[in-house]
Amino acid sequence: PSLAKTIQAPPPRLQAHAAQHLLELELQCCHVSLEEHAALPMPRLVLKARPATVEESELRRMAGILRETIRRREPFTVLWDVRDIRPPSRAALQYGVTLMTELAEDIDQLTQSTVIIASSPVVRAMCRWVLVVSRPPRPVKICEDDAAALEAARLARPASSLPIGDFIRQTRVLAEAAAARARPSSLALSQMP
User: pTM of the predicted model, to two decimals?
Assistant: First the structure.
């Protein structure tokens, strides 16, 4: 058979996973991109660590991609691939805290879910501990590989896409819970002098 007949197109499943990079930045410590993916319901901000220390100058450049992603005012998901991560420099860590504090409201509003790929059990345990302490406002999934991360991102939906009935029910339940916390209990009233 001729060579042309033996080469087949990739399966449709793989073709659907091709990403178009809207923004992209190559650094020593990581590759950062904002991508649209045929299999995903919204853009995804991808941060893939490389085995190099994160320096403040590189983190400042990464912040440019994050700010540009926020300027778009579209919901997005985040993929942190930390399989090759190295600890950041002290200056990078301090700048990162400042940046996240500055952008917290926009990040909380626009980020719909986060997926972390961590192959090390120690890193996964540390990620879980950080999540318990930080209590992020949106879902976070910790995976071991790319396929699980893609599936988690595929299932993400913008918070505003809840069916209106579900949204109203959730809002009512939250409002009732807040009102109950604000009311003094009858036990507390009976104990007042």
Answer: 0.71
